[in-house]
Amino acid sequence: MPPDTNRRRFLGLAAAMGVLPVAGCDQDAVNAEVTATLDSAETLTRAAQRLFISRTSLAPEFTEADIAPSFRPNGSVSPREHGYKAFAKTKFADWKLRVEGLVEKPLDLSLADLRAMPARTQITRHDCVEGWSAIGKWTGAPLAPILDLAKPANTAKYVVFHCFDAPDYDSGDDDGSELSSDLKPDLYYESIDLIDARHPQTILAYELNGAPLPVSNGAPLRVRVERQLGYKMAKYIKSVELIADYSKIAGGNGGFWEDRGYEWYAGI
Ligand SMILES: Nc1nc2c(c(=O)[nH]1)N[C@H]1C(S)=C(S)[C@@H](COP(=O)(O)O)O[C@H]1N2
Ligand SMILES: [Mo]
Fold this sequence. Notes:
The chain is of the alpha+beta class. The protein has two domains: 1-52, no CATH class; 59-260, Oxidoreductase, molybdopterin-binding domain (Sulfite Oxidase, Chain A, domain 2, Alpha-Beta Complex). The protein is built from six helices and ten strands. Helix 1 crosses helix 2. The two termini are 43 Å apart. The ligand Nc1nc2c(c(=O)[nH]1)N[C@H]1C(S)=C(S)[C@@H](COP(=O)(O)O)O[C@H]1N2 is lined by residues 72-76, 128, 163, 165, 167, 175, 188, 217-218, 230-231, 233-236.
């Protein structure tokens, strides 16, 4: 690059921003430089906008007639860990969702608190990497207003869902039955970024097909992240943690299946 090119580019930008008089410069060269700079800025903006639009666009929603007669449960179907069974016995009356981490106001929300918040119902298709799909009707509390209540710090980049269960993934029909088994049984967890966390279809679901979420599908609360594959949709949520990076959680890849080789961003 000729030595004066950077200076010219700076002058061009500065002139475009109206902070420098252009008198004394080679007017045509400055104009060309300004045009080129603005063009490339626009190209960048457009690319960023396209990316943003595709990250925020809605997943298809279906009608009541499309709902599968029974929604196949997969992975863990009956957690035994951390007093889950005791919570289940009282229909989760004593369970509370903890919202913590990089937040100004940690929260403890009961099922009644969550049901009292604005609700969203959506009929969507769930796609599992194992090659099956099912359409179900989910009702729950959108995650965005819950985050607003907790007030995430500026440093928060991801939302982690910590679950009750340690999937018995080596047994028979569970996900990844042929994957390596030398990892110790970890608790299920998943993470999404704040764009997905604030997506309008990202809800903490407490109902499936108009009835309380069955234990096999993740009672009392499971997340729906409709633009991604099934393994992102953590069931049996114990807590939600706001974090800056996930490299220090479990295997460091942002999720139970990610630690076993799956993609962190499982877009459909
Ligand atoms: N806590 C927890 N969440 C989980 C799993 C699991 O084993 N434990 N399995 C995942 C996978 S691979 C899929 S396909 C869906 C299955 O949801 P379902 O049981 O409602 O069909 O939950 C996901 N979330
Ligand atoms: Mo799955």
